[in-house]
């Protein structure tokens, strides 16, 4: 009898998770070509932010039913003030993809209720206060610089998981303004100028090594190349308050970034993703880039080629497992950041400071209870709620550049 049951399960698996051919995935199509598409409509997007996708759903909601030629991850990279954000927004519009702004700590410090936790800094010990890119540019040798850089990587990593969950759950592609794969470029520049200690530098790579291999690399990387002298001109031209008098954005710092972008990052990631590089010294036309993208064949590799290998899956079960991993198990992936860094003195907070921090933060507006259970912040129906929020999805919040 047991043998019959096992045979029945095998047969069911064979029919439900048989090899799946996903049509029209080789090329990315711009808005014009997609407007001529006469294929039947896809299923409605799965609300991965609020709704679980478990193994039981593999059978009733197939991941590949939503995937098409534009179900891809595109990353836009380049130096400071290269015009990446503007370009990435326009590109996402042209490709009918979701635009994700560069991951920034405004996404973390401003909670789900719109309260900016940085308002509490005066009540906190210095070791526990907020520290973002503006603070770094003003005081790059502050003790919180190491923690800031690790938080930056953590936030970019969190956003990239959201991008993967979005593609696999909705079928819509994503254009990211920078991503976690290039974060080391900044670390190398900071370390070269003495803003990170050797211990903090090594600690960062310990965390990176423990986390980065859990992700799927992007399909396409677009690099907007701007020489250092032009970057400095652009920085002066945009005249952001926190960039005006900084001692950080020197030719030396920017040159180290450029070197690591071109000699390490682009070289390594291009083994796994398609790469387009443009001279963006004077800007450029998004339409021309779209034409170049439409010519790329993302399936022109043999089975052993590392290019786009992360995205070659042959069964519904494989696709469903990936979707479940990034949509339902984000917290498990973020736990890979729990690498002990006791050997980095500037990242160790003593017990008394930590107690003050937790006492204040746990009583901040919107932080007393889990999201959805703070009646003082307007949450209703608390007595009838029987489950916690499904996942923590970062808001698509642009960095506030005005201050």
From TrEMBL:
The keyword Transport applies. Residues 75-301 form the Deoxynucleoside kinase domain. GO terms for biological process: mitochondrial electron transport, NADH to ubiquinone. Its main location: mitochondrion. Keywords: Electron transport, FAD, Flavoprotein, Mitochondrion, Respiratory chain, Transit peptide, Transport. InterPro entries: Deoxyribonucleoside_kinase, DNK_dom, NDUFA10, P-loop_NTPase. Accessory subunit of the mitochondrial membrane respiratory chain NADH dehydrogenase (Complex I), that is believed not to be involved in catalysis. Complex I functions in the transfer of electrons from NADH to the respiratory chain. The immediate electron acceptor for the enzyme is believed to be ubiquinone. Belongs to the complex I NDUFA10 subunit family. This is NADH dehydrogenase [ubiquinone] 1 alpha subcomplex subunit 10, mitochondrial.
């Amino acid at each position: 009898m047991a043998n019959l049951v096992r045979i029945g399960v095998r047969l069911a698996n064979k029919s439900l998770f048989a090899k799946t051919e996903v049509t029209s995935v080789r090329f990315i199509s711009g808005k014009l070509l997609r407007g001529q598409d006469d294929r039947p409509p896809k299923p409605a997007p799965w609300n991965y932010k609020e709704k679980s996708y478990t193994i039981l759903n593999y059978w009733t909601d197939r991941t590949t039913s939503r995937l098409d030629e534009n179900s891809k991850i595109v990353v836009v990279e380049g130096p400071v003030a290269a015009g990446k954000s503007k370009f990435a927004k326009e590109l996402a519009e042209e490709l009918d993809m979701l635009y994700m702004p560069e991951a920034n700590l405004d996404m973390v410090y401003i909670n789900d209720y719109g309260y900016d936790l940085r308002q509490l800094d005066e009540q906190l010990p210095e070791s526990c206060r907020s520290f973002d890119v503006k603070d770094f540019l003003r005081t790059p040798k502050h003790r919180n610089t190491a923690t800031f850089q690790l938080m930056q990587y953590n936030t970019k990593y969190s956003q990239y998981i959201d991008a993967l969950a979005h593609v696999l759950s909705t079928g819509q592609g994503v254009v990211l303004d920078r991503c976690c794969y290039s974060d080391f470029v900044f670390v190398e520049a900071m370390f070269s100028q003495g803003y990170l200690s050797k211990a903090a530098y090594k600690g960062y790579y310990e965390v990176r090594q423990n986390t980065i291999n859990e992700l799927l690399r992007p399909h396409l990387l677009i690099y907007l190349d701007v020489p250092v002298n032009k970057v400095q001109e652009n920085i002066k031209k945009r005249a952001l308050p926190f960039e005006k008098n900084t001692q950080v954005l020197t030719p030396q710092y920017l040159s180290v970034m450029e070197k690591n972008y071109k000699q390490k990052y682009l070289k390594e990631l291009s083994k796994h993703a398609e790469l387009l590089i443009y001279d963006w010294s004077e800007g450029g036309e998004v339409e021309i880039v779209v034409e170049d993208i439409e010519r790329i064949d993302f399936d022109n590799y043999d089975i052993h080629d590392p290019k786009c290998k992360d995205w070659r899956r042959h069964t519904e079960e494989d696709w469903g497992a990936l979707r479940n991993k990034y949509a339902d198990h984000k917290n498990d992936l973020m736990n890979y950041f729990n690498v002990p860094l006791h050997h980095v003195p500037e990242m160790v907070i003593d017990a008394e400071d930590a107690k003050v921090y937790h006492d204040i933060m746990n009583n901040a507006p919107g932080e007393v209870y889990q999201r959805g259970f703070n009646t003082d912040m307007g949450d209703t129906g608390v007595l009838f709620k029987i489950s916690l929020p499904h996942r923590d999805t970062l808001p698509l919040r642009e960095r506030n550049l005005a201050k």
